[in-house]
From TrEMBL:
The chain crosses the membrane at residues 31-52. Pfam families: DUF6341 (PF19868). This is Uracil phosphoribosyltransferase. InterPro entries: DUF6341. Keywords: Membrane, Transmembrane, Transmembrane helix. It comes from Christiangramia echinicola.
Length: 76
């Protein structure tokens, strides 16, 4: 059973984490490229935020939302 878990450890350390190890080694040369995953996640989050705001504006322009204080029982 121990060999099974050591095999899983070997796969993660030597194969699956290799791209992250390469990014860590790249930090000495280029900080921007070493943090490329962070930049990608921030861009995706920003684009999702812009899409969400666009959808909220569409619903607001159509007046589809009930904005009365009695629209929800916990507000009244």
């Amino acid at each position: 059973m121990k060999d099974f878990f050591e095999g899983i450890q070997w796969v993660f350390e030597n194969i699956l984490f290799y791209p992250l190890d390469a990014l860590r080694a790249l930090e000495l040369d280029s900080w921007f490229l070493a943090n490329i995953l962070n930049w990608v996640f921030m861009i995706v989050g920003f684009l999702a935020f812009l899409y969400w705001m666009k959808q909220l504006k569409i619903f607001n322009d159509r007046n589809e939302e009930n904005r009365e204080s009695t629209s929800h029982s916990f507000l009244g």
